[in-house]
Specification:
Two copies of one chain form a homodimer. By secondary structure, chain A is of the alpha/beta class. Chain A folds into two domains: 2-91 and 204-243, Rossmann fold; 94-202, Rossmann fold (3-Layer(aba) Sandwich). Chain A is built from twelve helices and nine strands. Chain A has helices at residues 13-21, 44-58, 71-76, 78-84, 93-103, 117-122, 124-131, 145-150, 157-167, 187-193, 202-214, 233-243, and strands spanning 2-7, 27-32, 65-68, 88-90, 111-115, 137-140, 175-179, 198-201, 224-229. The first copy, chain A, has a five-stranded parallel beta sheet with strand order 4-3-1-2-9. In chain A, helix 1 (13-21) links the parallel strand 1 and strand 2. In chain A, helix 2 packs parallel to helix 4 (78-84). Chain A starts with a strand and ends with a helix. Chain A binds chain B through residues 35-37, 41-43, 45-46, 143-144, 146-148, 150-151, 153, 157-158, 161-162, 164-165, 230-232, and chain B through 35-37, 41-43, 45-46, 143-144, 146-148, 150-151, 153, 157-158, 161-162, 164-165, 230-232.
């Protein structure tokens, strides 16, 4: 089994980490659009155009499934990808909602969705949660989280002040959807603000989803990795080495 | 006289503001590459490629001069622009250094350069300052300033904490080069940290430079503006209305 994982930059590596840990694939081809990162501040047309270009890239490889690890892509371009792909396609939004459903059966529960502006503005998580009976939903786009994580500030004063800026006035949720691939990297700090909340991580959600929806199971011994980036692939490889080293 | 002003996004409007105030042009064509913003995290090849595409765009207009308001473009792509343009080209780095020279003749003065990663890594300000005899130079890339400004946080706790993060341990400079079009929007707060420093603003520097180097003088009554963006031009126009309203 061979997967293509697509992200706007390095963030999708948090999803790759889960795929490797669960040994779902013989090979993963990773493409990060580092020359045009970040996607979360861009609009539907731009994100769709970039996503269809990434699809063309993956057509050069004999992959079984393309995984759009980027929530902004899943929010705006997943239908276009599915309509044009000669292989299976999975985003992260449907997997996230299904994972939440498994963990939080109570439909009265308060759900906090955290995502980029693109993801939140799309309203896609919210609509899908509504479909599954959840109504008590709050959506938040803490735009500075991505640059703070990119700056390597996974804890400390800057992150704390930025978190307080966005989280002030938010009542304790029962579950939080980490609707951006960067957010798992600061999940410990998010948990400190909301100690009672169950956190939904795209990587873990996708692993569950691939098994349930596509029957892709934990059978492969070692995952071979190939990295591609639209600029500076060496930097991507270096980050990958650091994040994936366990 | 007609100018084309090029920036990665909306930041170049701080330069446009100076051009309008000094009435240098009958018409300004503004192009913001909002679909691929920000440039400051990207590398030389990518920035050069995007800049040459912008040049092609400006060839559609009968302009007298193209002004690369973006410091990252000035840092990496100005020679390529000059080599390929059928009109005059100005960046902001040389103007910035010449403006500093006028204001701070003392070559022992301590100069602090603030810029994006691209601008700082290029070393272009530093080399040009050395050429003019300045040796006491410190360079800093406060990467979070741009996203904080984009988030509209021109003052308050988040900006203050972020500033302290980068400025702690920096000794008082005699002059600060605001080497990114976003930084004039938080110049008051920067001045609070370094009350004795003279701030060099790209917009004002370019106005001086256009007069000295190209003989473009304050003669035009009203400047007509035309705005173009690679995504969401309406958002650009709205920001322009707000920033340029005086």
């Amino acid at each position: 089994m061979r997967a293509g994982v697509y992200d706007s930059g390095v963030g999708g590596l948090t999803v790759v980490k889960s795929l490797i840990q669960h040994k779902l694939f013989d090979e993963i081809i990773y493409f990060g659009d580092t020359a045009r990162v970040p996607y979360g501040i861009k609009d539907k047309n731009t994100i769709t155009r970039y996503s269809l270009e990434a699809l063309e890239f993956f057509k050069n490889f004999d992959i079984d499934i393309m995984i759009a690890a980027c929530n902004s892509v899943s929010a705006y371009a997943i239908d276009e990808l599915k309509a044009n792909a000669p292989f299976k396609v999975s985003g992260v939004i449907k997997p996230g909602v299904l994972a939440l459903k498994n963990k939080i059966p109570n439909r009265e529960a308060k759900i906090l969705i955290l995502g980029t502006n693109a993801t939140i503005n799309s309203g896609k998580y919210e609509r899908l949660l509504n479909t599954h009976g959840y109504q008590n939903i709050e959506s938040l786009a803490p735009s500075l989280f991505v640059p703070v994580v990119e700056e390597g500030l996974f804890n400390g004063k800057v992150l704390e002040t930025v978190m307080r800026h966005y989280f002030e006035g938010i009542t304790q949720p029962d579950a939080i959807i980490l609707g951006c691939t960067h957010f798992p990297l600061i999940s410990k700090e998010i948990q400190k603000f909301f100690p009672k909340a169950v956190l939904i991580h795209s990587g873990e959600a996708v692993v569950e989803f691939l098994e349930d929806a596509f029957g892709i199971t934990e059978t492969h011994e070692n995952t071979q990795m190939k990295f591609f980036a639209s600029e500076n692939p060496d930097k991507l490889k270096e980050v990958a080495k650091r994040w994936l080293k366990d």
